[in-house]
Amino acid sequence: MRSVSLPLLQKLMPFALLLCLGCAAAAQAAPHRMVVSSGDCRDAELSGQSKAFYDALRARPDQRLLGAAEFGARLFPASSRSFEDLQRQLDAAQDQFYEGRNARASQLLDDALRDIGRLPPGESRWKLYVRAQLLHGLNHRGLGKTKDSDAAFLKVLRLQPKYQLDPDQFAPSLRQAFEKLRRDQARAPKVKLSVKSTLPSSDVYLEGLSVGQTPVLLELPAGAYELSVVKGDAVSFPRQVQVQGADTPLLVDLAYEGSVTAAPFPCLSIVDGSEERTLSHAVRLGGTLGVEEVIVVRLERPSSGPKWFAATVLNVEGGQKLREGGFKTQGLDAPSEALSALVDFVTTGRSPSNLVVMNNANGRAPWDAGGGRGASASGTGSDLTAPNRLSEETEVSTTAGPPRTGLRVASYVALGAGVAALGGAGVVRLMAQKDLDGLEARRAANDGRLVSTDAEAVALRGALVKKSGLMTGLLVGGGAAVVTGAVLFLVSSPAKAPPVTLGVVADGTGAAAAVSGSF
């Protein structure tokens, strides 16, 4: 193994410190955010103004914002082709198979199956899926891949054990092999999959095939299945379920997942008017997508007075409402100046314009003055607004940024420098090992003694002394820097910890709970 020379190590130390400084700066970058609207997701005015707000926020420099397209792709990956397009691709794959171009047929089938899995569940999708798997079975047989062929046939039989091959398309020998697979699978052990939903009597689909309504208990061969749960317009996030062991229970919170839509703009549908439930769903959505803050935008239409476009900023880790503001609006388009002022408020907690209104003297937002949205919490969702920091945020909105930011940056720098120094000490120790091994070899050659006339032994001992001094300095300096950084970090930490929140949903067939916060 090649060793690293001391001069090279000394040259690398400044770069390590610069890297740590860069990490500290990155830690202070803008939080990763997403924007989601709430209300009637089919409302063109809500979608249009939400999109305008999102565009204004995205146009700001140094914003880490989850894109609307990425939102849809991650939660509801959609097929880029229609049923008819995929049917034509399967026809093309079948022609390639009959012409002996098995590799091309396999490529077309794999490509089609990826998009078939993104189609809405139902009979049409299942028929495409079955045809693609049966063609795969035929094509693999043509390539001499019997195991792959059997696996493709079994993906049909595991959900439709009574499926019959068309004798006009499949040779007798292939139908015999198919029947043997059917008998073998019937004798194989099964795993119980029980599916419940927070919305009772929801339709359950596996690979697009309807298999019953919740609560449903299925006995299936072990393996991976694509599962969706649907009730009316509520559709769950598609998921891969590993059915294994003696029993696989699954509870789908369709009340939450079904409230999320991706088009025409990321949206949470409000059906019961519960603000607490909506904000709870927004926090869960932020956790699912891995962002730090969720900005919930909405149109407030009080029974009397003007209409408002409002935004609430939520911290995902603590489930805490950070700030809330809005401006008066009318018509389909939001005023650009007001949008810009609201973006300022959302990103900094301050706004240079009086167009954005936070809360009034009694702690309520102006759209709540009539006792509407925030007057009572009759829903069953968790209260994400306690402690409510809106009054506190407004009072300090003219001050500089977050308190103790300088100490926090200094703590990151000190911790980074300390870690780099300790790492350098480890490198020096590895370099010294070679000299130590050489010195032991010289000692052994001189009957266990170090002879002053042995020039090589003297040189090795001198090098070891220098490396020992350097390693000691790095250890002492690195330890001191780590301790200093830890102390500065504790001193700069906020006095209040985020609250612990609990969300519970239940019905006659099942229950689900979510806990978030710091423990």
Structural description of this entry:
With 519 residues, this protein is α+β, with helices and mostly antiparallel strands. The chain folds into four domains: 6-27 and 404-492; 32-73 and 262-395, 3-Layer(aba) Sandwich (Rossmann fold); 83-187, Serine Threonine Protein Phosphatase 5, Tetratricopeptide repeat (Alpha Horseshoe), CATH 1.25.40; 191-251, Carboxypeptidase-like, regulatory domain (Immunoglobulin-like, Sandwich). The protein is built from 14 helices and 17 strands. The protein has helices at 6-27, 44-58, 68-75, 83-98, 102-116, 123-142, 146-157, 172-187, 254-257, 275-289, 336-348, 390-395, 405-445, 455-492; strands spanning 32-39, 64-65, 191-197, 203-206, 209-213, 216-220, 223-231, 234-235, 239-243, 247-252, 260-261, 267-269, 293-300, 307-315, 320-329, 501-507, 510-516. The strands form four sheets. Strands 1, 2, 11, 12, 13, 14 and 15 form a seven-stranded mixed sheet that branches. The radius of gyration is 32 Å and the shape is flat. The model is unreliable at 1-28, 371-404 and 494-519 (pLDDT under 50).
Secondary structure layout:
Elements: H1 6-27, E1 32-39, H2 44-58, E2 64-65, H3 68-75, H4 83-98, H5 102-116, H6 123-142, H7 146-157, H8 172-187, E3 191-197, E4 203-206, E5 209-213, E6 216-220, E7 223-231, E8 234-235, E9 239-243, E10 247-252, H9 254-257, E11 260-261, E12 267-269, H10 275-289, E13 293-300, E14 307-315, E15 320-329, H11 336-348, H12 390-395, H13 405-445, H14 455-492, E16 501-507, E17 510-516
Parallel strand pairs: 1-2, 1-12, 1-13, 3-10
Antiparallel strand pairs: 3-6, 4-5, 4-7, 7-8, 7-9, 11-12, 13-14, 14-15, 16-17
Helix pairs in contact: 1-13, 2-11, 4-5, 4-6, 5-6, 6-7, 7-8, 13-14
